[in-house]
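Standup, Tuesday
Yesterday: got the pipeline producing structure tokens again.
Today: sanity-check two examples.
Blockers: none.

Example 1:
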Amino acid sequence: MNRYALRKVMLGLTGVCLLLSSCQKEVLVPEPDEATPEVQKPGPGKEYEKTESPADFPFRVFSLLRAEEGDKNLFISPWSLSAALSMTYNGADGTTKTGMRGALGLNLPTDEEINQAYKDLSDKLLKADDKVTFTSANSIWYTDKAKLQAPFLQQNSTYFNATIQALNFSSTTAKNTINDWAGEKTKGKIQNVVPAIEPEDRLFLINAIYFKGS
């Protein structure tokens, strides 16, 4: 994976963070209790059993970010981190893929099993609580001057239900197309996930979530 591709992945994750920040007023967070652990891992379930190591990944990320942020409030989306990077994993190869597999803790034998585990967990999360409004949407937008390999597109379409579209990145309307998608999927909470498309940009991989609940 070259540095431009990685930069776009991180932009997608930044978009997730912007969404979470915009939703804070809609989420009721209990006051901290010294007797309550600050981070609790999810309870057991067959989906988590399949992805036990990936479930640890967001906690490692949280620990690193917390060290940088000090005593500031910190709020991340473990699901968005895992989903976006797992989609990226489907396009990796060689040492990059090996490194991502280790960092994400993907311990299932095949890519198909890894993808299916995330799909099963996603299906469960979306129906977990009828008192909560939760949606998760994925997309891949790439320059029409590039050609992406079919397995990468097929895997992310099948298992992550990703919107996949080639765009003329030199057009002034390209960023509007992406931003309109983000606005629709987040009920207007994110309307400017891509402020500009630079000449070196080749691909945007985005996960966007919307959450409303107590």
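Example 2:
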Amino acid sequence: MMRATMRHLKSARLAGLWLGLAALPAIGQESGISMPITVSGGALYSQRLQFANPSNSPATAGFRAVLYPTVKLGTHWFGYAAVQLRESPYFYYDAFFPEHEYYSTVMQAFIGYSMRKGNTAVVIKAGELASAFGAFPLRYDDTDNPLLDQPLSYITEIPLRTDQLPCGTNDLTHQNYGFVSNSCGGTPGGGAGLTPVTLYSLPGAQVDISSGRFDGRFQVTSGSPANPRDISQAGQYLQWAAGGGYTIRQGFRIGMSGFRGPYLNENLAAALPLGTTLRSFPASAIGVDGQWGHGRWSVNGEWQKFWFDSPNFSTAPGFTSGYGEVKTVITPHLFVAGRAGWLSPGSVRDLSGITSNEFAKRLTAYELGAGYWLGRNELLKGSYEWMHSEGGSGTRSNVVGVQFVVRFNSLGWTFR
């Protein structure tokens, strides 16, 4: 039913990145290499594991390691990467696909240049970047996420595909989350739907600016957050994403972000109306996010609206999604957290005039959990998630899980 978009690590691309870093001149004497690592082991229990085969065990386990190699070359140049190694099922959404598989995925890998004047700082980055849309991707580490699951817009395979075209409203309303089969052009047969926002990388370039209480970012990438593309396809899939925020006071920030650009695969070009191209049917989104913290309490939340233009519709398929997350520290070692979120399909109208107020089921998810710091870098956490699909009942999609997370910060070398 759900699965994050996962792209296997391309060793040639990473090798090229690090060779590029090695060729950069070291400026000044502030140079060094560091490699923090977060290693996690997890177990979960859910009947999601039995959806495809009732004879499967409802319990499973997996692991995850994220490496963060960083190279600092002088006072301005640096390189940064975040590479994930994972055995699934590990995350809650993995439980819909119970086979044990191994993945290596680039979350970020870029060259950067930073500069500062007064209270204004500018950072320029190029390489594999986290999407500038949304706020959650930068809290994806298991020590930063107080719970075990992720918000719905970052993991749900919605009933739309990038390599098929729905014929109209009736076609859309007969699709399911995680399995989509349309018949008006594209790859034949059924397959997974698209995920609105990837948690992994897009090739491109970005400028970050902060000045006083304002911060902003502008990103140009090859591919949409809903359909990342290789850098060689940048000419056809080049698009933008942007975001910014204002810190009202210390610990309280509000922000906005958006993106727009083509998302349909090139195999659909011949099926599009005469005189149109892939760029005539973009994916677009706007989002609002907020963070607040005071004393023992912290709050995070997002609201997002997505549109996916399609040639057979006068009112494009779209979704709204959002979540609110609260965390409170009970003792220096113990915290409790909860998250409530939803994903709601919008109305559609096809070219024949057939409409639907909601072309798919509304999803809601509620997760309650706790964590205990056994030491400075060792975290044990667990949670229970209630998942509900509109019109459904029962507890088969609910999940209970635990994770043990260890963070290594001391791996590093300095040089002149």
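Quick observation on example 2: The longest strand covers residues 101-117. Confidence is low (pLDDT under 50) at residues 1-28.
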